[in-house]
Design goal:
Elements (H helix, E strand, L loop, with lengths): L1 H16 L53 H4 L11 H10 L6 H12 L13 H12 L3 H9 L9 H10 L8 H4 L8 H11 L2 H14 L4 H11 L19 H9 L24 H12 L6 H8 L10 H17 L3 H12 L5 H13 L5 H11 L17 H7 L10 H11 L5 H8 L3 H15 L4 H13 L3 H14 L2
Length: about 500
């Protein structure tokens, strides 16, 4: 499972690899450019005029580049965060939304998973890695988070609880216990230690530790009651203590409730808990809900969504079951080459009303576009392809005067715009200009911040702020992310019709 997700996110990042490396940007090499020496170069300091500089030796291990995606895959330099403030980045990650458009969300994953060094003012070792992990979990990307934390090998003691919690969120339900067994004296890991001994089959040791902790008072009443029920050693417990906490629940508590036969539905919990339903152990309905929920954050590969949709025949109608049915019918029609026109139109009518249209486009856009269809269906399929990495395939479909031709072919010489949005897009790719504040941050070597700010601007821009829309796409286009900028513009044209 973990390997599959690694290659999925590797595939996501390949769209970035097709773009120019971020450290080799055409406009930066122009004559007399004040950024001629590169956006990531730190300015020389005149030591003779500086009295407050202290020199110390840095431990290279404390500033190693940690990530799943190397620079030759993403084009993202490992120094992308070095000159930024840790507090600023941590705040940006915490407040970063799930982005509405797939190209933007895919870029976020590339930033989170790319090999990168922490900011120079990181308050403690691995603090920046923890911030990245928290954001991945916030998107429900559990398996990539496990793979990322394991790159900090050996896992530092302070991160063992986090690694254990993340492992319990995975759909294989297999806790990572070895680091817990190696830190048995850690008072913050006693509940985890009891659970791991029980999973290992050493029920006597688990019971002894539990009774000891009841005396020492390191565990909450809820943890003691759940563990007693789980170990089946004491059923005389306070049933009120078995109720879920009013505001939050830990991954261990979630698994304990499940183990004692009182599971809490993942659909009512934060999105990272939905990964556990992908195994299908809680039923097909829970599996479909989890797949659709995770698809909105890009935390699940499309082929897995298709496999879940087509796993059974729906016995009900309405809501998600309508989506399941049209996907199953269309998939069968494509395989059997029968009634394709009808089933494609039916699926289009269902999905165009939902927030799952981009997922539908990734599942069927290319497969349908390659078929011999009516002009009406061909146009729908062409527009669906604009929502995917395969947007360039439609280049020959559009008239050279259409803005969509300019964006797919990269040729705007004959394009004629028809509204304000198209005019802005046309100017971005024909007369690019860099916002002044962006220039300042680039000159300070804060490329990561520039990208994050551009993404947040774009999210506001698609809601109607044309200035933010223009500045965000201009920034992405000029810092070497032209393909992402073109895909984002195309997605906007399709979804805002």
């Amino acid at each position: 499972m973990r390997i599959r997700y690694f290659f999925y996110f590797l595939l996501l990042a390949s769209s970035l690899a097709a773009q120019s490396p971020l450290s080799a940007i055409d406009w930066l090499s122009k004559a007399n450019s004040k950024f001629q020496k590169g956006i990531l170069e730190i300015k020389n300091v005149d030591l003779e005029k500086t009295n407050d500089i202290q020199v110390s030796t840095l431990n290279s291990n404390d500033y190693q580049a940690i990530g799943l995606l190397p620079i030759y895959v993403t084009g993202i330099p490992t120094t992308i965060w070095r000159n930024s403030s840790f507090d600023d980045l941590e705040y940006s990650f915490k407040t970063m939304p799930t982005f509405s458009y797939s190209p933007i969300q895919e870029l976020v994953y590339s930033l989170l998973l790319a090999e990168a060094r922490p900011p120079l003012n990181e308050p403690s070792r691995y603090a920046f890695l923890e911030a990245r992990l928290d954001k991945l979990l916030n998107y429900g990307a559990v398996d990539p988070a496990i793979a990322l934390i394991e790159r900090a090998s050996p896992v530092p003691e302070r991160m063992i609880p986090q690694l254990f919690d993340i492992s319990l969120l995975s759909n294989n339900n297999f806790p990572i216990c070895d680091p817990v067994f190696q830190n048995t004296e850690n008072r913050d890991l006693q509940a985890e230690l009891i659970y791991c001994y029980a999973r290992k089959g050493d029920w006597l040791t688990a019971h002894l530790i539990l009774k000891t902790e009841e005396v020492l008072g390191d565990l909450t009443n809820n943890e003691i009651s759940l563990l007693n029920r789980y170990l089946e050693v004491d059923f005389d417990v306070n049933l009120n203590a078995l109720l879920p906490p009013p505001e939050s629940i830990t991954p261990l508590e979630y698994r304990l409730y499940e183990a004692i036969g009182e599971p809490i539905p993942a659909e009512y919990l934060p999105i990272q808990y939905s990964q556990s339903d992908l195994s299908g152990e809680n039923g097909w309905r829970a599996q479909v809900i989890a797949a659709e929920r995770l698809s909105l954050t890009g935390a699940i590969p499309e082929n897995q969504i298709l496999g879940i949709y087509t796993n059974h025949n729906p016995g009900a109608s309405g809501g998600m079951w309508d989506r399941v049915k049209v996907v199953t019918d269309l998939d069968a029609a494509l395989n059997q080459k029968e009634n394709l026109e009808k089933y494609f139109q039916d699926a289009w009518k269902v999905f165009k009303k939902t927030n799952q249209l981009t997922v539908f486009a990734k599942l069927f856009g290319l497969r349908v576009f390659e078929q011999n269809l009516s002009p009406k269906s061909k146009e729908i399929a062409a527009n669906l392809l604009l929502l995917t990495n395969n947007f360039k395939i439609t280049e020959g479909y559009w008239d050279p005067s259409d803005i969509r031709f300019g964006l797919t072919a990269g040729d705007f010489s004959q394009v004629k715009v028809s509204d304000e949005t198209e005019k802005i897009i046309f100017q971005i790719f024909t007369e690019p200009s860099m916002p002044f504040l962006v220039e300042q941050k680039l000159n300070q070597g804060k490329l990561g911040e520039v990208i994050l700010n551009a993404l947040l601007q774009f999210e506001m821009g698609i809601e109607g702020n044309l200035k933010d829309f223009s500045e965000s796409l201009s920034t992405l286009n000029l810092i070497g992310l032209e393909t992402t900028a073109r895909r984002a513009a195309l997605t906007h044209l399709v979804l805002k019709k």
